[in-house]
């Protein structure tokens, strides 16, 4: 086994998560790094933030594979006078490349929502929103629990399956309602409410639910419970599978790397204070 170059690692990632599968607005791929540089160690993380770069440098990683793009919006500068620019400078000075796989990893199979669906106990998965070029791919997943559960028990199962966060799990629905058929979407999923209704599921697990879309979704489909989790936590399970697939694909080419998954939470919330019981005033 030999050590791959960054270009060889990127080529394999492009096969696993083709950039063409990304949404039009997305910007996955190589952000910074020398294509000819050797890559012995890869750190996988949800967000390319300063704590993750600290972790990469401490571990001696030459590459960070992140889910979220660093420079999603257009920019004319990476000057170190703003946080993302400083991060690019830090990566370059430290000899750490950055590659991102975002909505192309969402659409892939197995992808981000497959991992979320599996850890919360779903089987027989299919895309919630099939891709136009391949119906086996697409955003979100729909599956079923092998044994139906009351909504409260299912929500507790979700909470146990995902890394802990300050926000925990929020639920809209009857705690005793029967849950068997479930839709999931790693990351923000309230743009998929129409697809969730069409799927006829008992519950929808996703992140970043806004007040008005969630309220309207409940009014339009009161039989579908909403289970809201942390954005970061909903996407973190994908990292382990992505590491295994990258290692295996490189090994098939006679190339060897070491991978690790970031243990540092990039969830932005520090703590939450429970509301007092009783009615609003």
Automatic annotation (TrEMBL):
InterPro entries with a match to the protein in the record: DUF34/NIF3, DUF34/NIF3_sf
Keyword match Metal-binding: yes
Keyword Metal-binding: yes
Residues binding a divalent metal cation: 67-68, 106, 231, 235
GO cellular component: cytoplasm
Domain of life: Bacteria
This protein's name: GTP cyclohydrolase 1 type 2 homolog
Family to which this protein belongs: Belongs to the GTP cyclohydrolase I type 2/NIF3 family.
Keywords in alphabetical order: Metal-binding
GO molecular function: metal ion binding
Pfam family, one: DUF34_NIF3
Subunit structure: Homohexamer.
SUPFAM superfamilies to which the protein is assigned, alphabetical: NIF3 (NGG1p interacting factor 3)-like (SSF102705)
């Amino acid at each position: 086994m030999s050590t791959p170059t960054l270009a060889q690692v990127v080529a394999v990632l492009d096969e696993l998560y083709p950039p063409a599968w990304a949404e039009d607005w997305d910007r996955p791929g190589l952000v910074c790094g020398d294509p000819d540089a050797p890559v012995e160690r890869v750190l996988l993380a949800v967000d390319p933030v300063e704590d993750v770069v600290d972790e990469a440098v401490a571990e001696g990683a030459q590459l960070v594979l992140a889910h979220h793009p660093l420079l999603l919006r257009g920019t004319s500068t990476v000057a170190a006078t703003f946080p993302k620019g400083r991060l690019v400078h830090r990566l370059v000075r430290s000899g750490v490349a950055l590659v991102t796989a975002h909505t192309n990893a969402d659409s892939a199979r197995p992808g981000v929502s497959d991992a979320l669906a599996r850890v919360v106990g779903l089987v027989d998965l299919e895309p919630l929103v099939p891709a136009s070029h391949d119906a086996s791919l697409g955003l979100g997943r729909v599956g079923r629990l092998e044994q139906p559960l009351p909504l409260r028990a299912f929500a507790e199962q979700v909470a146990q399956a995902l890394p802990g966060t300050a926000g925990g799990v929020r639920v809209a629905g009857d705690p005793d309602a029967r849950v068997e058929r479930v839709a999931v979407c790693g990351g923000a999923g309230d743009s998929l409410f129409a697809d969730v209704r069409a799927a006829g599921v008992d519950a929808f697990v996703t992140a970043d639910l806004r007040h008005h879309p969630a309220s309207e979704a409940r009014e339009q489909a009161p039989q579908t419970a909403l289970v809201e989790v942390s954005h970061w936590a909903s996407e973190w399970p994908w990292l382990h599978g992505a590491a295994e697939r990258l290692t295996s694909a490189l090994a098939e080419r006679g190339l060897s790397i070491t991978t690790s998954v970031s243990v540092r939470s990039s969830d932005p919330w520090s703590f939450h204070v429970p509301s007092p019981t009783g009615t609003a005033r």
